[in-house]
Amino acid sequence: MKIITINLSEPHVKALQVLQDLGLYPSRSEAIRVAIRDFLQRELGFAQRFDEMDAQASTHEKAAPAAPVAEKKKEIARLLRKLREETPDLTTIA
Q1: Containing structural domain, residue 21
Q2: CA–CA separation, 40 vs 78, rounded Å?
């Protein structure tokens, strides 16, 4: 894992601390990782669906989707798989 620095408002920090105090997450860092994982899955999922729609639209014009689109779809699928593997869903543990 890499360490990154973020700036959060005091209410955000307090809310993260409440989640930790309630035992929902072992640390504020883990709560942030889960939030970022969910955000990325949602955003990359949208991107993947848009790529699929573009590929389907392009099949009417040509036999196969363009190589960059196909590569982008593969990369998004790899990222989503890795996110699922690396960050377990801790909300079911509590």
Answers
A1: 10-88
A2: 12
Q: Which residue has the tokens 């504020």?
A: 28
- What residue ranges in the chain does DSSP mark as E strands? none
Q: Could you read off the pLDDT of 57-76 as tens digits, one per residue?
A: 655 555 555 567 777 777 77
Judge whether 69 lies within some domain. Answer: yes
In a domain, 94, yes or no: no
pLDDT in tens, 12-48: 999 999 999 999 999 999 999 999 988 988 888 776 6
- Give CA torsion, residues 5, 11, 14, 18, to 10 deg: -120
Q: Which amino acid is at 30?
A: E
The total number of structural domains that make up the chain: 1
Residue with tokens 């035992």: 23
